[in-house]
Amino acid sequence: MDKQYLCFHLNGEYFVHSVSSIREVMPYLEPTPVPGSPDIVEGVLNIRGNVVSIISAQKLFNLNKSQTSVDSCIIIFDSQSDLYGLSVDAVDEIVTFNQSKMHVSEAENDLSKSPFIRGTVKHSKGLLIIVDFMNLLVIEQNTLRGG
């Protein structure tokens, strides 16, 4: 069965996530830093009355920090009753592919060792790295709680 994924860029790589838990995509706004928060948390934003933690995708994947540009975005996604944001270099488009085409990589590189990577899929754009935000939220919530 084909599923839809949001395609976004980080340091020249293409990443995708299922659209099912994504609430919206917004232009990048500078978050308010929170003293004592984990390194991956850039800060928080007030989005229509909701305080949203903004997570740095570059730090999450141990990538070099890229400069914020007019293309930079924040992807807002739901986790039960909480909202979270992920800052990315740019959002591209919605792509569709069948999960049976997903390949789980055994390569020995930093990205393949990440608990947030589900696999890769070949696409006309090139190799797409499939991200699982729900794993991200569980780990981020445990980090914030000191676990």
Automatic annotation (TrEMBL):
UniProt GO cellular component terms: cytosol
Single GO biological process annotation from the record: signal transduction
UniProt xrefs under Pfam families: CheW (PF01584)
InterPro entries for the chain: CheW, CheW-like_dom_sf, CheW-lke_dom
Highest rank taxon of the organism: Bacteria
Record domain CheW-like: where: 2-142
PANTHER family referenced in this protein's UniProt entry, alphabetically: CHEMOTAXIS PROTEIN CHEW (PTHR22617:SF23), CHEMOTAXIS SENSOR HISTIDINE KINASE-RELATED (PTHR22617)
UniProt name for this protein: Chemotaxis protein CheW
Source organism of this protein record: Zooshikella ganghwensis
